Amino acid sequence: MNMSKNLIIKGREVVEDSWFVLRAPEAVEGEAAAESEADVIAALPVPAGKVIVPVGVWNAQRDALLPRAAAGEIGIWFASDERPEPLKEDLSNFAVVAVDFPKFTDGRGYSIAYNLRVRLGWTGELRAIGDVLRDQLFSMQRVGFDAYTTRPDRNIHDALKGLSDFSETYQASVDQKVPLFRRFNRTAAVSTGVNNDGAGI
Questions:
Q1: What InterPro entries is this protein classified in (predicted)?
Q2: What is the model's pTM?
Q3: pLDDT band at residue 164, thresholds of 50, 70 and 90?
Q4: Which of 28, 36, 79, 191 has the most other CB atoms within 10 Å of its CB?
């Protein structure tokens, strides 16, 4: 069983993470697997404490985990190739929802986060886990992430600065519903002599 306890960025601060992320163990080289990977994940034992479990574990052990979820001890994480819609009715059971980024270049997690916030109405903690680097954080917060477990070989305090890389955004998203061209008052800018080059684009 591979579990990790790390520092986490939450509320624009670096704090100690009180949650464990439950993952399947690394495959043993040469081991003859009698079960599929999905079966292995589904059968993972869930230790005591606050645990973020894979979708497969929740689906297989839902009845047993429901009391712990009601006590605020269970969260869930989605792999980049999983969709959250099948668990729409279960989302209210979780204290935290996480999305895994298996590698920096895999952008599917952004869509998962956006759908969780906009289409499924998730308002609780939404954290990014996995291969999470400073360069991603600003874009991640735009689609609804509000907590980040950064890659352990990088400086999390440096990564925190990534949330403030830009002071303004052009496009509308989860964090800003109105695009810049609609937020900019062109008439007021003209009357005050403000340079409005590009206004209305």
A1: UCP030820 (IPR008318)
A2: 0.76
A3: low
A4: 79
